[in-house]
Structures are given as C-alpha cells and as structure tokens.
C-alpha cells in the first residue's frame, strides 16, 4: 500500500501547481522557417520580388516577404500546416509553387529554385490601372497599402503587421523588425509613447478598415529621432479631405473556431482653416490555446514519474477605442492641433487543466484538475499638442510635439487546483489568488 505523508502531499501540491502555471501560459514557440531562392529566365538572382505565403486548403494570405540581392527569401515563426508560395515581379509571369508541409521545429529549405519567366506582353496589350499595389518598395521605406486590400476586412492593425514583410510578432505580442527589437511606432507621423503589451492592446483596438497605409522605415534618416535606429513603423490613418461634414460606419464579422466582430464610426467636419475629426471603435475577439503535454521526470537517470496533461484556455477580448482631434491652419504653411487617443481592453481568461500523475513504472497513481478564472483590464490614453511650419522656399519643416500618456493594467488571477486519488476522492486542494496593478 502506498502511504502519503502530509509533507509529501504538500510538496506534490506545490509542484503540481507550478506545473499548471507552465501549462496555462506555455505557447508553442517552435521556430518553423521557410527559405528559398528566386531567379530569372537566365538564372540570375531577382531582387525585391514579392513572395506571398498562402495557406491551404483555403488559399488564405499569411505573410509576404521580399527577396534580397541574392534572390533569397525567408519566412520565420510559421505555424505548422500546408502552404504554397505565390511569387510576382514586374515584367514576369506570376509563379505558384507546389504545396509543401511545415512541421513544428522544422526548416523548409529544400524548395526547388523558383525560375520566373517573362510575361511576353507587347506594348499594345499594356494598360494602366489607377490602383495602388498592396506592397510598394521605395529607397528608404516599404509601404503596405491597407486600404482596399483583403486585409482591411475584419482585421486589426496588429494582424496586418503580422503579415507585413520583415515584421515578426511573437506569441507574446512583442514586435520586431528584421530581427531587431526597440522599434519606434508612429501614428500619422507622431511618435506614440506606448510600448510592450500596452502598444499591442492599442493596435488590437485599431480596425484595419481605418488604416490607409503602413510605412515601414528600416533605415531612418536624420529627420527621425536616433532612438528609432532599430526601425520605424508609421501607421497612416484614413483622412477625409472633403469639405463639410462627413462620416462612415463600418462593421465586420468572421467565423473561425470562435467568432470575431467589430463596429466603428468616424466623423469629420472640415472647413477652410479648421478640421475636427473623431472616431469610436469596438472589437470582439476570442483567443484560445489547446495543449497536450507529457512531462517525464528523472532522478539519477531513472524515471521517477510523469504528468500527462490536457490544457484548454479561452480568452475573450472586448476592446474599445476612441480618437478625437482638431487641426487649425494659422497660415497656408503653419498648422497647430490637438489629439486625444485611448483604448480599454477587457478580457477574462478561462480554462481548465486536467492531469494524470504517473509513477516510475508509468502507472497512474493520482490526478488533479485546475480551473482558471481570471480577469484583466488594460486602459490607456494619450494627449498630444502639435505645431508644424513648412518653409515655402526650401520645404524644410519645423515641428513641435507635446505628449502626455498614461496606461495601466489590473489583473486578477484565480487558480483552484483539486487533487484526487485513484478512487476519485479529493486528497487536498489549493487556491492561488492574486491582484496585480501596474501604472505608467
């Protein structure tokens, strides 16, 4: 007969609770990578060809990258699944690869070289269409034209960035550009003071339908603050240039494993010298995480036990945001303005972890179950006063910005773990409860 002392039960409860925390907050971090090379019809590397990653079976656009001077491209942190590549370059026929499979922890580097063929169009067949391409490459920046693209429907700003070339959004919502952290974020040319999770929450609250374009500046000039040497991402919002009062109402709904929806309203009042604008948005999202974990423990090379765990976590997000401001033209070359932004992100993680405890001979000796009932509140707001004067002769600018921002979060965590023997009788239970409040 197996006897458990109070000390062993206590140690088991504490160790099991730590294991549950790992299970609830573990995210798949497998660094799946796809690499390849694009060449032209005479087998020379093709620079700045657009390579789009498409997911099967529904041919959903996942992410785009550009080739470098050697014709090489790379996609990183790609989820497991089946994909194909679509390659395009001006003057050449579009090329679609065969399908291939990405597995966790794998690198797809054995793709055949992609050879582009000229399209063979004669001049008489060429027509000019007044439509901006989805991705533009310029000398100092890359431009993602969000308006009228497929990404503008039902997405938010963070989801658009996940698909942009050179940008990686980690499972923890950390944003890096070309592998470098510390990217400066700007909204309509003005630096936003938010960083980390506060910035991610604000980007989640910004519907893609309100964005005109995103400018990704990988090599900032002297015009920008030196702190942005890791790169600058400037989100340019839509502006109504029509005189008088104008407004739009937009809504979206998509259905996956869980639904996501949003609705927003924007208003604009423009006269000769004065422009007053504002908008309100609401977004509903559901994130989830399913994990099957099997943890084996050894002591002096001998197996001592294992945990067989099933973890399911669901996180519904309710995100509210607002933006109000006014610009006044003191002269044709001088403008002053004020701007207020804010967002509130409410979400309640809820889930359950079920675990079987095995001994060294792989026999189940007990089990435990943990429920997660938590709640989070992430509010933020910022105020900006600005002045800009443009010299009519040499087009040089003088600009002044005054900013005040405050963001904070309140987190209530509540974990209850109950332990059972082989007869299903409860042996002990633990409750972990905490309140975390952080303000900046």
Report on this structure.
Residues 1-12 have low confidence and may be disordered. It contains 3 helices and 27 strands. With 440 residues, it is mainly β. It starts with 5 loop residues before the first helix and ends with a strand. Among the domains are: 31-121, Immunoglobulin-like, CATH 2.60.40.1120; 128-237, Beta Complex (Ferric Hydroxamate Uptake Protein, Chain A, domain 1). 8% of the residues lie in helices and 55% in strands. The strands form 5 sheets. The protein has a 6-stranded mixed β-sheet with strand order 10-11-16-17-14-15, with no helix packed on it. It has a 6-stranded antiparallel beta barrel with strand order 21-22-25-26-24-23.
């Amino acid at each position: 007969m197996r006897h458990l002392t109070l000390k062993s039960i206590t140690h088991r409860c504490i160790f099991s609770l730590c294991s549950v925390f790992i299970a609830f907050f573990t995210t798949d971090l497998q660094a799946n990578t796809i690499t390849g090379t694009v060449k032209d019809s005479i087998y020379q590397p093709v620079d700045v060809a657009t390579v789009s990653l498409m997911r099967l079976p529904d041919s959903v656009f996942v992410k785009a990258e550009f080739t470098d001077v050697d014709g090489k491209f790379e996609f990183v942190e790609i989820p497991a699944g089946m994909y194909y590549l679509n390659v395009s370059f001006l003057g050449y026929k579009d090329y679609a690869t065969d399908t291939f499979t990405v597995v966790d922890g794998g690198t797809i580097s054995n793709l055949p070289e992609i050879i582009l063929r000229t399209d063979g169009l004669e001049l008489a067949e060429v027509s000019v269409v007044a439509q901006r391409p989805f991705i533009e490459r310029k000398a100092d920046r890359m431009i993602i034209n969000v308006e009228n693209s497929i990404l503008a429907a039902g997405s938010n700003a963070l989801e658009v960035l996940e698909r942009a070339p050179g940008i990686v959004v980690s499972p923890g919502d950390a944003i890096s550009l070309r592998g470098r952290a510390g990217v400066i974020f700007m909204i309509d040319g003005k630096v936003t003071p938010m960083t980390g999770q506060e910035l991610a929450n604000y980007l989640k609250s910004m519907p893609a339908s309100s964005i005109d374009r995103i400018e990704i500046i990988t090599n900032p000039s002297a015009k920008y603050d030196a702190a942005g040497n890791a790169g600058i991402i400037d989100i340019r919002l839509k502006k109504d240039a029509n005189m008088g009062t104008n407004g739009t109402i937009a809504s979206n709904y998509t259905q996956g494993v869980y639904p996501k929806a949003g609705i927003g309203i924007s208003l604009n009042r423009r006269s000769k010298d004065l422009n007053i604008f504002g908008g309100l948005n609401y977004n509903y999202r559901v994130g989830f995480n399913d994990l099957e974990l099997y943890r084996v423990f050894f002591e002096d090379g001998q197996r001592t036990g294992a945990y067989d765990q099933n973890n399911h976590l669901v996180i519904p997000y309710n995100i509210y945001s607002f933006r109000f401001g006014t610009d006044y033209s003191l002269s044709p070359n001088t403008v002053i303005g004020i701007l207020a932004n804010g967002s509130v992100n409410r979400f309640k993680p809820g889930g359950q972890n079920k675990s079987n405890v095995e001994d060294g001979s792989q026999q189940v000796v007990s089990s435990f179950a943990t429920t997660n009932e938590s709640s989070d509140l992430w509010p933020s707001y910022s105020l900006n006063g600005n002045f800009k004067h443009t010299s009519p002769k040499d087009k040089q600018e003088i600009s002044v910005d005054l900013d005040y921002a405050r963001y904070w979060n309140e987190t209530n965590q509540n974990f209850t773990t109950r332990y059972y023997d082989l007869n299903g009788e409860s042996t002990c239970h633990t409750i972990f409860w905490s309140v975390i409040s952080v303000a900046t």
